[in-house]
Amino acid sequence: MVQVNGTSFTPDDLIEGETLSCKFESGVLQGWEFDLSVDEQNFSKKFEIIHQTLGSGEDPVIIPNRNLCSAVGDTFVLTGVKLPEAKIKEAEQELLKVGKIWAEKNSKDTDVYDCPTNPVYCAKQDKNYAVGQKVLLVDPRFSGGVRSSRIRAYEKKLWNVYDAVYTVGDNTVYSRLGSIESNIKEGQYAERIGVNGSGTYLIRSKYDNTPPTDYNAYAALRAEKEFLHKNKSDIA
């Protein structure tokens, strides 16, 4: 037996043709869903749980039982009933809030841009960028003509590092080649740069040969391997 307090629910709120049921969200019955029966003639905000039988044979398990049963303070969701108008409006506002967040997230520019350099200018100004470095994209298509972004990847000539093509954008670049490695490393990369809000590239302890620059940092486990300990024994 379960009792619903603090609600205006009445048997008139039952939806014709629907099964009245509840799903527990807390307590020892959390995750369990049961059909309910209700005395519509003498309703007192109490519902009888229709038990479930697990197993067969001589020792079936009946739930609820003495150990697995509802308790005062347990919460559950009723289905098969009409919601009060106030609850419908509350749900609409929650849906609207989530929808606005989704729309804002998906309306952002998800493109990445390949930006070739002017090697003569870059050599004179010593413009040799690193992965993770913040840059400004200048184009009339952007609001205000500029947009702050980050370097995601680059290709540089071996004989001239200033002759390069930088891949810039807010999304991680995905490559079909080496898809397994890309899924792992780029997923971690997206988590560390931009997505988590810190904007700092963390050089991991394994499978990461990124050279240190002024625009990244060692992860804790990588630092353990790179530097000697001051507070415990270590080998130089």
Kindly report the spatial arrangement of strands forming the biggest sheet.
1-4-3-2-7
Q: Portion of residues in helices?
A: 10-25%
- Strand percent estimate: 25-35%
The topology string of helices and strands comes to: EEEEEEEHEHEEEHEEH
Short key terms for the protein model shown above:
alpha+beta; four-stranded antiparallel sheet
Q: How would you describe this structure to a colleague?
A:
By secondary structure, this protein is an alpha+beta fold. 22% of the residues lie in helices and 27% in strands. It has 4 helices and 13 strands. The chain starts with a strand and ends in a 10-residue tail after the last helix. Mean pLDDT is 78; it is low at 192-198.
List the helices and strands and how they pair.
Elements: E1 2-3, E2 21-24, E3 33-37, E4 46-49, E5 52-54, E6 61-63, E7 76-79, H1 85-106, E8 112-116, H2 119-125, E9 134-138, E10 146-157, E11 160-169, H3 179-195, E12 201-203, E13 216-218, H4 220-226
Parallel strand pairs: 12-13
Antiparallel strand pairs: 1-4, 2-3, 2-7, 3-4, 5-6, 8-11, 9-10, 10-11
